[in-house]
Amino acid sequence: MAEILYQIKGPPNHSTAESDADNMLRPLMEFLDGNLSIFADICEKTVLKRILKDLWKIVLSSLEKTIVLPQSNDSLGAQLLTAAKGLSNLKGGSEAKTLTPKQCVIIDAGLETIKQYFHAGGNGLKKAFVEKSPELASLRYALSLYSQSTDALIKTFVTTQHSQVHDGMGLRITGNEKIRPDRGSGVEKPIGEAVMQIDMMLGKERKVTVRVIAVNDMKWQTSGMFRPFVEVSMVGPFLTDKKRKFTTKSKNNSWTAKFNETFQFVLGKESPDCYELQVAVKDYCFGRADRVVGLAVVQLRDVADRKSCVCWCPLGPRIQTDETGMTVMRILSQRPADEVAKEFVKLKSDTRPVEEGR
């Protein structure tokens, strides 16, 4: 199916979308006709209905995970995507490609044909089951996001993902660094705490000044020297021409490290609610990749009403997302030529290693 779809070129054309969809679906329909005729002969009606429901779910899931958002060949994509089982041969063994607007229109038209096939004029699945299935909703949502710009997708991520570290628990905000709050609730296995002062200037200049004060009580085992440092990244739309990441100097063998370094970000044209700061505490390693000690996220919507404040951020081992967040990451992971997309996916995929620094 993918090979047939990828061969269809040109601008979107709704008048030919249905015939193009029929051509694309031919391998699928041959597969279904051949197998369902066998099941119809040997299965009771209730069993056949159950098989139809399972097949419906597999077909929709396979369309999404092998054609719309196929498994990437690179290691990063392999971490993000899980290829669908069953019907995977319909992918045709082709390499993952980015769909054009025309191909998205064809897939959308093909969904109507698939729905009619499984409904079978009232003899198959009920229309209510088909229309309300989560697999159909997921595929439609992926298609609706697919053609959006990288900036629009990052905005969707920031404005929907409010529980990226420790389920959104444990972050505390004070007026200044001398007011140390009680330890935040909801953090079961603390691995450290980043302390930052954030000053907001939301006039014409729209600047955010971040002072990395310290990282306290880091939990990190290593057989060599521990050299923690902090990366602070601004995440949001319309930042392509702006500096998005700053890095502190590293400290030697300090599990509670004071940095007191200040950086300034310039926001894009969207509301502060569309931006967030991601903090990554890492162990500097000469000659190999630095290892993640812990991650934290501060969304500007939580501090925008304060001109200045100090955030006490519990570090987590990884970024957590819901289905919307994962869909955005999967779409952006299919844009290898887009540096902002690659940077975003890498940022949200960083993970604390199980073996820590050993």
Portion in beta strands: 15-25%
* Secondary-structure element order, N to C: HHHHHHHHEEEEEEEEEHH
Question: Rounded to an integer, what's the Rg over CA atoms?
Answer: 24 Å
Assign a percent range to the helix content.
Answer: 25-40%
Task: Give keywords.
358 residues; elongated; 37% helix; alpha+beta; four-stranded antiparallel β-sheet
Characterize the structure shown.
The chain is α+β, with helices and mostly antiparallel strands. A hairpin with a 5-residue loop joins strand 2 (193-201) and strand 3. Residues 73-95 have low confidence and may be disordered. It contains ten helices and nine strands. The strands form two sheets. The protein has a five-stranded antiparallel beta sheet, with no helix packed on it. Helices cover 37% and strands 19% of the residues.
SSE map:
Elements (H helix, E strand, L loop, with lengths): L1 H5 L7 H29 L2 H24 L6 H6 L20 H19 L7 H6 L1 H13 L3 H11 L11 E3 L18 E9 L5 E10 L11 E8 L9 E3 L9 E10 L9 E8 L7 E9 L8 E7 L8 H10 L6 H11 L9
Antiparallel strand pairs: 1-9, 2-3, 2-9, 3-6, 4-5, 4-7, 7-8
Helix pairs in contact: 2-5, 3-7, 8-9
Describe the structure in brief.
This protein has helices at residues 2-6, 14-42, 45-68, 75-80, 101-119, 127-132, 134-146, 150-160, 323-332, 339-349; strands spanning 172-174, 193-201, 207-216, 228-235, 245-247, 257-266, 276-283, 291-299, 308-314.
